[in-house]
Amino acid sequence: MIEGIFRFLALAASVAVLTAAPALVSAQEFGGQLMELELPAITNFAPPQGETPLAQGSGGAVTLAAQMTEGGAEITRGLVWRVFKPDPGQDGKLPLVASSRGGTGIFQLDPGSYLVHAAFGRAGATKRITVGREAKREDFVLDAGGLQLDAVLAGGVRIPPEKLRFSIYDAEADADGDRALILPDVSPNTVIRLNSGIYHVVSTYGSVNAVIRSDIRVEAGKLTEATVEHHAAELTMKLVREPGGEAIADTSWSVLTESGDPVRESVGAYASMVLAEGDYSIVAKNRDRIYQRDFTVVGGRNQEVEVVTTEAAVDGTVDDVVD
Questions:
Q1: Model confidence over 219-229: pLDDT tens digits?
Q2: Which of 19, 86, 272, 296 could form a disulfide with 121 if both were Cys (CB 3.0 to 4.6 A apart)?
Q3: How far is CA 238 from CA 234, 248, 250, 308, in A?
């Protein structure tokens, strides 16, 4: 009943706008070992212990630069740099030594070993560096790309952006079949920076059951544009005494699937919702009287559905009004 078609277009892009930092940094190989650094929210970092983040101290100046791909152009804005001491403090957190936002960063650090994390939207990389008395430069390759999502109805009809949202998940499910949520509530046509790889994307039209899922590959150094086609429509329901009549207030609504499973309930003179393509039944209750109508949702065809009362209805009975 729910189908989706994704169309992919790859465009070379240099990504610019800053989004939130990732919760889990991708592993980078250092010294023959695989190293992972888990980052809490920025407010949970251990506070700096007096180190100077800019070129003001007695140590060596370190220039940190990042590219989306090997040999690519330097990222000039939208980066977040965080420099940590490599050993956890008494609270179990890595002490944050310095941070900056923008493009290429210059830090004055005391000699020693540090962990540096570069974040570009939801893309990021971690690297261990050693600082001496001499100035040096460290380059980070983020292996990142962009993802831009949108959706339409059958025939290319646009969906109102305020009724459309996307969620991005890890492509791999855990033992329970659950996927880690990377970014929820993404608005259409928003560019999201991600490390290259495959992601599971969920597109939701409305708030009931018009949902489409698909796996999308993000390529480093490119903007991947994906458009999903929803097979759904917006329905407005009302209880009337005669066809074309005024809606009756204080009506309770229940929408059921063809197999009788509940889909949505609401109260009011009108019930408006987006439903996936398929067969449904409406049950309307008003003043202890119950009325029912079967109807079919056709993708892309918004419609008003009337449930007509009849004199034959008595307390607790059901009138079937077939479309």
A1: 999 999 999 99
A2: 19
A3: 14, 7, 11, 9
